[in-house]
Structures are given as C-alpha cells and as structure tokens.
Write a structure and sequence with these properties.
The protein has helices at residues 3-22, 26-39, 48-92, 99-120, 129-172, 180-188, 192-211, 224-236, 239-254, 262-266, 271-289, 302-308, 314-339, 346-363, 403-414, 467-477; strands at 379-380, 392-397, 423-428, 438-442, 456-460. By secondary structure, the protein is mainly alpha-helical. α2 crosses α3.
C-alpha cells in the first residue's frame, strides 16, 4: 500500500472517529441553534432570560456530551463517565467553548481508564469491585481534569485563536472559497468528517458565540454543487443515470443525503471540476453577502440549512445555494454531454455505485477482499425468520441517521397494509437496539454486526432499491 493511500486511510479513520463523537449529539446542536436564533437580542423573539441558555448549552452541555461520547467510544460506560469528568477540566480552564477540547479529553480519559481496568482486573479482592471501580473513576478523572485545566485547555484556546485568525484572514482577503478545492473532492472520498467536525464545527461554534452566526457551517453542507450535477444528468444524461437523477435530486436536496450524488461524479471524474467550481461559488457568494448559520445543519438538506439560517440571511443563503448549483450545472453539463455514448449506461452507473461502496468501505476501515462487495447474500447469521416470530426490524447504517432512516421509512410505507404487527426502526450498526429480530444493512457493514445475537441479517447494496429488500417486503405482505 502506498504512502498516499496510508495517509488517506489515516485521515479517514480520524474523520470516522470525530464523526462518531459528534453525530450522536447533533440534536443538541440543533436545539442550541434554535434557541440562539429565537432568543438572542438579534433573534426573532428576543428574550433575555431564555437567551441565558445559549451560553450554558454551548460552554458546558455540548462539550460535556461530546466528551461523554468520546470516552464511551474508547472505554465503554466507564470511559463515558470519566470522559465527561475530564472534559470539565478543559471547560473550566478556558474562556471559549471547548468542543475541540472535548474531542481530545473524552477519548484520552476513556483510553486511560480502559488501560487501568486491564491492569487491575485480576487483582481486586472479592467484594471490593464496586469500591475500586467507583474510586478509580473519581480519582483518575480528577487528575485528568486538573491536567486539562492547567495545560490542555489553555493550549487549545490558543490553537483555536490561531485557527480563527486564519479563517478571518481568508475571509478578509476573499480567499475562503478556495477551501472548496479540498472540501468537495474530500466529500467524494469520505474525508469530509475530519475537516467538518474537527475544524469547521469548533470554529463555527466560537464564531456564533461572538457574532451570532458562522459561515463555516455553510462550506461543506451546501447542497448546491451536488444539485447541479444531478440536474446535468437529468437534462443531458443517458440511460439509468438520467432516469434515476430526478429521484436522487429529492433525496439529496430535500433529504440532505449527499452520498446519493457521489456515484454520478465517480462515473465521470471530470465532474470534480464542476463540484469544486460550484462549492467555490457558494462560499464566495456567502462571503460577499456575509451570511451564516447559527448551528450545524445536519443532514445537509436545504430544509435544515434554512431552519438554521441567521435572521435576515435566508434569501441570501438560498441565492448562494442556487448560484453554486447553477455553476456546477453549467460546467457539469459540458462533461455529461461529452461523455454521452461512453458513460451513462446502466453498467457504468452500477460500476460507479460499486466503486463507491468499495470506497465507503475503505473509508470506514473495512477490508475489501477481491470482489467481496459485489456478492449479495440475502441471509447471514441465521435462517429466514417466520413473519409471525418477527416483532422488530432494524435498518442499520454507519451513523444510524441518514440512509438507514430513509430505508426504514420506505420499508414502512411499503408494508403499511401488512397483517403483521411490526416495529421498523433505524440505528447505527454499532448500536443495534435490544429486541431486534431482523437487521437490514449494507453489505460492507455486515462484519460489524454481532453474529451471536441471533439476528437474521439482510445484506443489501442500496437502501433505496435492492432485491433483498423487495424480498423482505414480499415476505411481510403475505
């Protein structure tokens, strides 16, 4: 494996870890965003008392939740508790929101308590387990919090100030749009989480605390570049890519599932020029019009973006999205028309989706063995369950919030007249809820499911349209 490939894998792994800390807490970001938009002095419904929640949520609760999630990822429930304790140290040791500090202290504390538990697990006298467990978290957590207060908090405050000055410099020199050169290809390669959650979110939160809004939340989430690509295929494409584009537009633009347009770009790599130009245009317009969001828009749907838009910025942001889409469409149309007869067939489109699945598997740290991803086994782990025995079906994706939610919704609609009493839900493949009878997941995530739980595992290629999902629908329609 080349050095470049190793570097990309390391960045992807880092991005996955950051995403796993932040994504479970997106709801809190949205709650904070609504409270900010409504109740600050410049909000829609100014209210001094309710606005006091803004600082509490941003400075204390959000970092604590991130630290808790980070500790849990590394050290389980004990790691979660000590991660929250450690995060309190960097919060107290700095005067700025410590989102970045939480992303460091949570996993660090979880790792330390995990190593401690390994060292003493066979040395605790019988009857003293609870005493040792509780006091170890308390004492070690206190020590890590003190280190965070005196060292890590002040250091990260300085680092954040440097990053903010860098962003201010790019904005003042009208250079911020050039970040699209890295962000837009990064989305296709699944490197965006490392940038978005590691840099954009902490800086954006600090900017919101100071100015009430931030342009950083509009850089990666802008659906305009992807919309332009899909429109180009709809108007000028051929074959399956042309036919599927209208549905993809709804899922991408309204649903915020950006992954839906990635195969269209992979099918014709020249379209990277179009998405970069579209992203550049969107950031440029937002910079000129001085727009921003009050919190992260997740998923990157136009609905989520409009709901998080700062007061008076809605029309401006919409103009930036449309401008990005127009530029991406204009440039993308050239390459789509040029490729007609060469690309755009069903075979090319399916190959692009297969390549995307492999790239996504690699981005998630999974091994790709030959053409393993092209195989599609319906049932894994157990035989098909009798419909009368099934009470809960879980659609599982990596984060449990995007494609799985969409798949579960489509499945519920398909079996709404079913005679069986079913609960259909969605979740992260790493956190499948208790009581699940059938788990439906992407084939590159199957290996992450515990096969000892007795689930019937349905392996699929696509949550939107897959032969194995169709078979499952038929099973519960009978």
């Amino acid at each position: 494996m080349s050095k470049n490939s190793n570097a990309k894998n390391n960045v992807q792994k880092f991005g996955r870890f950051l995403s796993a800390m932040v994504m479970p807490n997106i709801g809190m970001f949205i709650a904070w965003g609504f409270i900010t938009a409504l109740f600050i002095p410049d909000g829609y419904l100014p209210n001094e008392k309710l606005a006091s929640m803004v600082a509490v949520l941003l400075n204390y609760l959000i970092p604590t939740l991130i630290g808790y999630s980070g500790g849990k990822l590394v050290g389980g429930e004990r790691g979660a508790v000590i991660g929250a304790i450690a995060t309190a140290g960097v919060i107290a040791g700095s005067e700025i929101p410590m989102l970045m500090g939480a992303m460091i202290m949570g996993p660090l504390a979880g790792f330390i308590i995990k190593q401690f538990d390994k060292k003493i697990q066979d040395k605790i006298p019988t009857g003293f387990e609870m005493l040792v467990n509780n006091f170890s978290i308390g004492i070690i957590g206190m020590l890590i919090a003190i280190v965070g207060y005196y060292a890590i908090g002040p250091f990260l405050a300085g680092l954040t100030a440097i990053l903010e000055h860098g962003v201010d410099f790019l904005i003042s020199k009208k250079l911020l749009p050039f970040v699209s050169i890295f962000v837009e290809p990064g989305k296709i390669l699944f490197l965006n989480n490392a940038i978005n959650h590691g840099i954009f979110t902490p800086i954006g939160a600090n900017q919101v605390a100071q100015a009430g809004k931030s342009i950083m939340y509009l850089i990666e989430a802008n659906p305009g570049p992807g919309l332009g690509i899909l429109l180009a295929y709809w108007f000028f494409g051929e074959g399956n890519s042309k036919q599927s584009a209208p549905g993809a537009i709804i899922i991408h633009f309204l649903g915020g599932i950006h992954e839906i347009y990635f195969p269209y770009v992979l099918m014709n790599p020249y379209l990277l020029i179009a998405v970069i130009a579209g992203g550049f245009t969107g950031v440029l317009v937002n910079t000129i019009l001085k727009t921003g969001l009050v919190s992260a828009a997740s998923p990157g749907s136009i609905i989520a973006i409009m709901s998080m838009a700062a007061g008076g910025d809605h029309i401006k942001i919409l103009l930036a999205v449309l401008a990005a889409a127009a530029v991406s469409f204009a440039i993308g149309s050239i390459f789509v028309k040029k490729a007609n007869g060469k690309a755009g067939s069903k075979e090319d489109f399916e190959k692009a989706k297969s390549d995307l699945a492999k790239a996504k598997a690699q981005a998630k740290g999974q091994k790709i063995d030959g053409n393993k991803l092209e195989e599609n086994t319906e049932n894994i782990g157990s035989k098909a369950k009798n419909p009368n025995e099934v009470k809960k079906i879980v659609f599982a994706c990596d984060a449990g919030m995007g494609s799985s939610a969409m798949g579960a919704s489509r499945f519920r609609n398909a079996i709404k007249d079913s005679p069986y009493d079913l609960e259909v839900t969605h979740a992260s493949v790493s956190d499948i809820p208790e009581g699940a009878d059938i788990v439906v997941t992407n084939e590159n995530l199957v290996e992450r499911i515990d096969k000892t739980k007795g689930y019937e595992i349905i392996s699929i290629k696509n949550f939107l349209s897959d032969e194995n999902i169709n078979k499952l629908i038929e099973r519960f329609k009978k």
